[in-house]
Amino acid sequence: MDTYSLEYAKSLDEQDELKHYRDEFYIDPNTIYMDGNSLGLLSKRAERAVLDTLNDWKQYGIEGWTKGTNPWFYMSENLGKSMALLVGASEEEVIMTGSTTVNLHQLAATFYKPQGLRTKILADDLTFPSDIYALKSQIKLHAYDPDSHLVQVKSTDGRFLDEDVIIAQMTEEVALIVLPAVLYRSGQVLDMKRLTEEAHKRGILIGFDACHSVGAIPHSFTDWDVDFAFWCNYKHLNGGPGSVAGLYVNRRHFGTEPGLAGWFGSRKATQFDMEHTFSPAESAGAFQIGTPHVLSLAPLAGSLAMFMEAGIDRIREKSLGMTRYLIDLIDCELAGMKFYIGSPREDKSRGGHVSLEHEEAARICKALKKNGVVPDFRAPNIIRLAPIALYTSYYEIWETLQILKKIMAEKQYEKFKNERDIVA
Ligand SMILES: *Cc1c(COP(=O)(O)O)cnc(C)c1O
After folding, report:
1. What is the dihedral of CA 295, 79, 28, 351, to 10 degrees?
2. Which of 8, 31, 383, 393 is deepest in the core (most CB within 10 A)?
């Protein structure tokens, strides 16, 4: 069969073991949603979980903390247990709390302890801006100059990071390393196992921002001996806008005093003793701060159940199948149209999306939206396309390429301005 044909796309869908999950999501029949790496779609199970929580509030009032479908007092810990399977950790090492940026602040406040020569933080030039803002402000809190104390590893091509170059910068001046697990633009997966080994050989603590990797690829944080990690749950995990984030702390660090303490970090049994001496939980739970945002946690109960059932290995396998298929179609259908694939072509280095570069990217994205395809744009020239294992079909990938080809052939993008919208 011609692998670029519609029949082939349909045959891939027929063979897909995960295809029935698509029916569990709210999918607008008139759009092809390729933006699940920015905001995942709502599933019926996530919706049910929110409604159950609202109902518990309605029925039990304050008793909802300990009664109902998913008692609020234990929700962050209970969800952390499911999440632990997705990140390769033991149950006590994961907690659902805060937001990505707040969790990074918490972890840097805890693990960045400049001493003697070791006063710097090592990060990279391609990471998400919020991480850089947070790390620089943590450096300032220690009264150091962020310009000299935040070392950002450079990329030679603006797309990828070279692990050898990162390792070469793990000097005796570095106290802490924070790197992305998957780069948000190119989708490159960093070798977390190797980077952790090399950091530890040099006596440096290392943590990862897993926003773009959680729910898309398997992790083995505990086996790799990573010190800490943090991530958001509204991208690949479909937890909803602003859903509560995740945090991993290696059990070796249990008992380390949280940099930012708060009463929800207490041992559960004694929290309500209301003592002024803080007794932190002997788990990742110690890194919680205040009362959990229960209504933003609730959707994760429904969403994570689907990940547990489908299994992260099957999700990864389908995701790779889809991004590989997408790349093949781009190579074939868009040849000679000045596109460049800015994501790794080898499976093991590619995360959950494909980054397609073009100098007219901003207005090509607008033309795609006009034609019912939802991509996402990253300035100045990237169209990110994310087929999602639980709800995207191969047919939709094929159709996206037909639409893109037509937009280019008819120069439809020329009708739009080549600039981004406020939210991109
Ligand atoms: C999405 C994302 C964030 C967002 O942080 P929030 O605190 O959730 O706004 C941070 N880092 C990376 C790498 C991201 O992809």
Report:
1. 130
2. 383
Domain segments of the chain: what residues? Answer: 6-30+311-415, 48-309
- Which fold would CATH assign to domain 6-30+311-415? Aspartate Aminotransferase, domain 1 (3.90.1150)
Nearest ligand 1 atom to the CA of 99 is 7
107 Cα: distance to centroid of ligand 1 (angstroms): 15
Give nearest CA residue, ligand 1 atom 5: 100
Give the residue among 398, 389, 397, 396 at the shortest CA–CA distance from 20.
Answer: 389
Using alpha carbons only, what angle is made at residue 102 by residues 101 and 107, rounded to the nearest 5 degrees? 95
* Residues within a 6 A CB radius of ligand 1: 99-101, 128, 130-131, 180, 184, 209, 211-212, 232
Q: What is the pLDDT along the chain (424 residues), one digit of tens a residue?
A: 899 999 999 999 999 999 999 999 999 999 999 999 999 999 999 999 999 999 999 999 999 999 999 999 999 999 999 999 999 999 999 999 999 999 999 999 999 999 999 999 999 999 999 999 999 999 999 999 999 999 999 999 999 999 999 999 999 999 999 999 999 999 999 999 999 999 999 999 999 999 999 999 999 999 999 999 999 999 999 999 999 999 999 999 999 999 999 999 999 999 999 999 999 999 999 999 999 999 999 999 999 999 999 999 999 999 999 999 999 999 999 999 999 999 999 999 999 999 999 999 999 999 999 999 999 999 999 999 999 999 999 999 999 999 999 999 999 999 998 777 888 7
End-to-end CA distance of the chain, in Å?
A: 38
Using CA atoms, how far residue 398 sits from 212, 326, 340, 357, in Å, is 24, 8, 18, 19
User: How many residues does the structure list for the chain?
Assistant: 424
- CA 100 / ligand 1 centre spacing (Å): 6
Q: Where are the beta strands (DSSP E) in 212-285?
A: 228-231, 246-249
